[in-house]
Amino acid sequence: MKRILEPPSGTVGGLMAGMNTMFNSIMGRTREMAVLQVLGYRRRAVLMSFVLESVLLCLAGGALGCLAGLLLNDLPMKFSMGAFRFLIDAVSLSTGMALALVIGLLGAAVPVTRVAGLRTVEGLRLQT
Question: Lower CB density within 10 Å: C or N end of the chain?
Answer without folding.
Answer: N
